[in-house]
Write a structure and sequence with these properties.
The protein folds into two domains: 53 residues, Thrombin, subunit H, CATH 2.40.10; 95 residues, Up-down Bundle (Methane Monooxygenase Hydroxylase, Chain G, domain 1). Helices cover 50% and strands 21% of the residues. Helix 2 runs parallel beside helix 4, helix 4 crosses helix 5 and helix 5 crosses helix 6. The mean pLDDT is 91. It has a five-stranded antiparallel beta sheet with strand order 4-3-2-1-5. A hairpin with a 2-residue loop joins strand 2 and strand 3. The chain is of the alpha+beta class.
Length: 163
C-alpha cells in the first residue's frame, strides 16, 4: 500500500490547476459537521491562501515543487519544437486542458510553448488566450519557488526562452 505523502509547514508544493505555494499552516476545521485537517497554502502570485483537505491530497495531485535539475528540463521544453496539436480548436483545448490538469510541469510548459507559438503564428481564440495566461501563471509560480527568484525575473526568463 502506498503511503500518503505528508507535507509540513514550510514545504513548497504544487496544487494542479492553481499553481505553486508554500504550506504555512495545518488547521483543523469543521465543515458540515465533519472535522477535517487542512493544509493552508499561501500562493506567492496573487497572494492567495488556499485550504486543501489533507484527506484529498492524493486525488488532487498535490506534489512537491521541482528541483534545480528539473528547472533546466523545463527550460529545454520551453525552447523545444512545438508538438503537433489538433486543428480543431475544441479538441486542442481539451487536450491542453488535460495536460494542465495533470499537474506535470513539463506538460504545462509544453502547453505554454505550443500556445505561445500558435498565438504568434495564427492568433488564439479568447478561450485559448485565457488558457495560455493560466498555464503561464501556473508555470511561473512553480519556477519562482523552485529557483527562489522574484516573479518578474522568472517572467523575463520564460519570455526570453519563448522568443
Amino acid at each position: 500500500m502506498k503511503t500518503r505523502k505528508e507535507f509540513k509547514v514550510g514545504d513548497k508544493v504544487v496544487y494542479p490547476m492553481h499553481g505553486a505555494g508554500i504550506i504555512e499552516a495545518i488547521e483543523e476545521k469543521e465543515v458540515l459537521g465533519r472535522s477535517e485537517r487542512y493544509y493552508v497554502m499561501r500562493m506567492p502570485i496573487g497572494d492567495l491562501r488556499v485550504m486543501i483537505p489533507m484527506s484529498s491530497v492524493e486525488e488532487l495531485g498535490l506534489r512537491e515543487v521541482i528541483g534545480k535539475d528539473d528547472v533546466r528540463k523545463v527550460f529545454q521544453v520551453l525552447q523545444g519544437e512545438t508538438t503537433s496539436m489538433a486543428q480543431n480548436w475544441n479538441r486542442r483545448y481539451r487536450a491542453n486542458m488535460e495536460k494542465i490538469k495533470s499537474g506535470d510541469i513539463f506538460e504545462v510548459a509544453e502547453v505554454v510553448r505550443n500556445l505561445t507559438v500558435r498565438e504568434r503564428d495564427k492568433g488564439l481564440s479568447t478561450g485559448e488566450r485565457k488558457m495560455l495566461e493560466n498555464a503561464r501563471q501556473i508555470l511561473i509560480s512553480e519556477l519562482v519557488l523552485a529557483q527562489d527568484l522574484p516573479e518578474e525575473q522568472v517572467e523575463q526568463q520564460v519570455s526570453e526562452l519563448l522568443s
